[in-house]
Write a structure and sequence with these properties.
Largest interface: A-B, 35 and 31 residues
CATH topology of the largest domain in chain A: Rossmann fold
Structural class of chain B: mainly alpha
Helix content of chain B: 55-70%
Number of strands of chain B: 0
Number of strands of chain A: 7
Largest sheet of chain A: 7 strands, mixed
Order of helices and strands of chain B: HHHHHHHHHHHHHHHHHH
Radius of gyration of chain A: 20 Å
Shape of chain A: globular
Shape of chain B: elongated
Number of domains of chain B: 2
Structural class of chain A: alpha/beta
Oligomer: heterodimer
CATH class of the largest domain in chain B: Mainly Alpha
Helix content of chain A: 40-55%
Distance between the termini of chain B: 22 Å
Order of helices and strands of chain A: HEHEHHHHHEHEHHHEHEE
Number of helices of chain B: 18
Number of domains of chain A: 2
Chain lengths: 304, 393
């Protein structure tokens, strides 16, 4: 059984929106985007959002709920994702390496079928929505492997149906141009001017301890059950070359330096790591304010 | 007019008075959200009970109590629920997702509350699997107490305790974390799914930090925003206060009237149209609608000691002086405060129409109002109101 993290970083877009509103920021770049549900919130509230990440499935989901303004998956299209289509030959053993370790034979088979069906979808928006919905099924399965008697048994296709169908409710337009890109932090920062930069930096060496529900889903999307997240991060600013304390601090400083043109920088951290980031931000910016609604949710708000 | 005087000369603590105002927020929030009456109180009791059974600290249980009580305050004035919004159903749904965050902002502005309350309200509708709202937090990113508050919500809405158990079991791993669902099952077996009665934890309130009168004004303003009648409570309150003074209403009754002028519009929450949009304020046709709203507003304050006398006024405001209104009270059987409130609300409605009419067709509100003295309105009250209106013209 794979270990699931007991802590999950909290990104509260409603709180972030309050901070942006207080500074009259109407556009935002997030180069450490992760799962971009927070960007979807900000988009719904009229903010132009631009995100970036190195994991492709995050970017694909961003194409579904951040970039996409109107495309949804209708019932017939969802049906073509969740079940085997007659006449199509599926790679049913694509995820056999996970069988008996993390998932059952049936679940591994579904993972292969779903990957094939999603890869055959016609639009980026639909692909992103399907990836998001199916990821929730995947998480449910992993969670259920930890609490088999405490969670209801739901047929895979039924669970997938309900989760994919639900994604429709997050599709909306804000009449602004919103983007996501598969790129390193510095590329994302320099690609798009905006009123604010939001950074929630990964912890040092966090790629080595990433939540299984995150990196395994990238493995699924890549169709490679042996994929490791270190591979995705290997040449990046926050990869192995910033493994020690000093090089990590240098990496953060370079991010802040690259963000010099942004009127507002909001860095989210925790009370435990505040002392690590605050001097770096104060070094880069003249006016710095700390908002601390919770020990696990501290915002360093920096203006030029 | 000074609000919240003690009419019975029985000393009541500032905290209990504040708690009654918070209870009013909760009840009005339920009405705005379309919840069954009493949902907020049941949710508060269930939240505190579940917190205690699951070993949370007393401070956590207190914060959960108030978060349960105030769970729906964000619905009052929410853009997706406001009268007259022109949103599509889809856009309105998205706007409604904001009500927990709106509620958190209201709670954050009430300094007397434990500081944890605002974020519990903010995250009460988050789902374990990340499909909740407003923030789509997931897994352990959702504070434990916010999950407990969601469990309390299920208890408060269930028609039968067993229904709550079935609902939670079905949501385990999706809306509710499996560990929290397990904790709920333990609580259920300890209590039979019926939260024990809970006293309002007055000690947890810093009453001196939040005087009740500005809070009540805040509530009244949000009600007006919800009903798309911005500024009405101010106009009606000023008018009623001046009339009360002119007719020499005793201080205690004026205090109750002050509460009533700020809360009468709670009865209109949830209606697509205001009563004066449907019927002329002097029309007999509008009696039933006004009586329904009056009863609904009074019911909001059932069991609320501070608002008990205001509730009498609210309930009787659709009575007509000649006994043909609802309730069928006549002359002096109608509480004077109710007579003043009825007259002030009607005059404000007439005056609002007057202000929006073009100059050539304007009818002075005083002319039509005067014709209802002795039938709809207490003649002494009507006379005083017209004097006040003329003095302010």
């Amino acid at each position: 059984m794979i270990e699931l993290h007991e802590r999950t970083r909290r990104i509260s877009p409603s709180r972030l929106h309050e901070i942006l509103a207080a500074h009259d920021a109407r556009s935002l770049v997030d180069p450490f985007m992760g799962l971009p549900t927070h960007l979807n919130y900000l988009k719904r509230h009229g903010i132009a959002v631009h995100g970036g990440d190195l994991l492709e499935w995050f970017v694909r989901v961003g194409e579904g709920i951040v970039v996409n303004d109107q495309t949804i998956l209708r019932d017939s299209e969802v049906a073509e994702i969740v079940e085997m289509l007659p006449g199509r030959i599926y790679p049913l053993d694509a995820f056999k390496a996970w069988e008996g370790v993390f998932f059952s034979e049936e679940q591994c088979m579904y993972l292969g079928v779903w990957l094939d069906n999603v890869r055959n979808l016609r639009s980026d928006g639909q692909t992103g929505l399907a990836i998001l919905g199916l990821w929730r099924v995947f998480c449910y399965w992993l969670q259920k492997s930890h609490a088999p008697d405490d969670m209801p048994d739901v047929a895979p296709s039924e669970l997938a149906w309900s989760y994919i169908r639900q994604t429709e409710s997050w599709v909306t337009t804000n009449l602004r141009h919103n983007t996501v890109r598969s790129a390193d932090v510095l590329t994302t920062i320099s690609a798009q001017p905006a009123d604010a930069l939001f950074i929630a930096p990964p912890a040092r060496n966090s790629f080595r301890t990433a939540d299984a529900r995150i990196w395994m889903w990238e493995a699924w999307w890549q169709g490679n059950p042996y994929f490791t997240i270190e591979h995705a991060y290997k040449d990046s600013l926050f990869g192995a070359r910033s493994a020690d304390e000093h090089s990590y601090a240098r990496a953060i400083a370079s991010v802040l330096s690259a963000a010099a043109e942004y009127p507002l920088v909001v860095l989210q951290t925790t009370e435990r790591r505040l002392a690590e980031f605050e001097p770096l931000v104060r070094n880069a910016r003249a006016r710095v304010e700390i908002l601390a609604p919770h020990a696990n949710e501290i915002y360093i708000v920096a203006k030029r | 007019m000074t609000l919240f005087q003690d009419p019975d000369a029985v000393p009541r603590t500032a905290a209990s008075r504040l708690a009654d105002v918070l209870d009013a927020f909760g009840a009005v929030g339920d009405r705005a959200a379309g919840n069954a009456p009493g949902t907020a109180r049941r949710k508060a009791a269930a939240a505190a009970s579940i917190a205690r059974a699951t070993g949370r600290s007393a401070a956590d249980a207190n914060a959960l109590y108030f978060a349960g009580l105030l769970h729906a305050v964000g619905a009052i004035g929410n853009l997706g629920l406001r009268r007259g919004n022109t949103f599509s159903e889809r856009t309105a749904t998205m706007a409604r997702w904001d009500f927990p965050a709106d509620g958190a902002r209201v709670c954050a502005g009430i300094a007397a509350l434990p500081p944890e309350v605002a974020d519990l309200v903010r995250w009460q509708a988050e789902a374990w699997d990340g499909t909740g709202f407003p923030d789509q937090l997931r897994w352990h990113g959702i504070p434990i107490d916010a999950q407990l508050l969601q469990l309390a919500d299920i208890v408060a809405r269930a028609s039968d305790p067993d229904d709550a158990l079935v609902t939670v079991a079905g949501l385990a791993g999706r809306g509710i974390g499996p560990d929290h669902a397990n904790a709920f099952v333990r609580w259920f077996h300890l209590t039979g799914g019926e939260p024990e009665p809970v006293e309002t934890p007055l000690d947890a309130l810093r009453a001196e930090a939040s005087p009740p009168a500005p809070l009540l004004d805040l509530l009244a303003d949000r009600i007006d925003a919800h009903n798309a009648t911005e500024g009405r409570r101010l106009r009606v309150t000023r008018l009623a206060e001046a009339v009360a003074e002119r007719i020499g209403l005793p201080v205690a009754e004026r205090d109750a009237l002050g509460l009533a002028t700020r809360t009468f519009a709670a009865g209109e929450l949830g209606h697509a149209n205001g009563e004066d949009e449907r019927f002329d304020p002097l029309s007999r046709l509008g009696i039933a609608a006004r009586a329904e709203n009056a009863a609904a507003a009074a019911a909001v304050f059932d069991g609320n000691q501070t608002f008990a006398r205001a509730a009498e006024i609210l309930r009787a405001r659709a009575a007509w002086y000649d006994g043909t209104g609802q309730p069928a009270l006549t002359h002096d059987a109608i509480p004077k405060g109710a007579a003043v409130l009825a007259a002030a609300v009607a005059y404000d409605a007439l005056d609002s129409v007057h202000r929006t009419q073009i100059r050539e067709v304007r009818t002075a509100p005083a002319d039509s109002f005067d014709t209802a003295a002795g039938t709809q309105f207490d003649p002494a009250v009507a006379r005083a109101l017209l004097d006040v209106a003329r003095a302010h013209a």
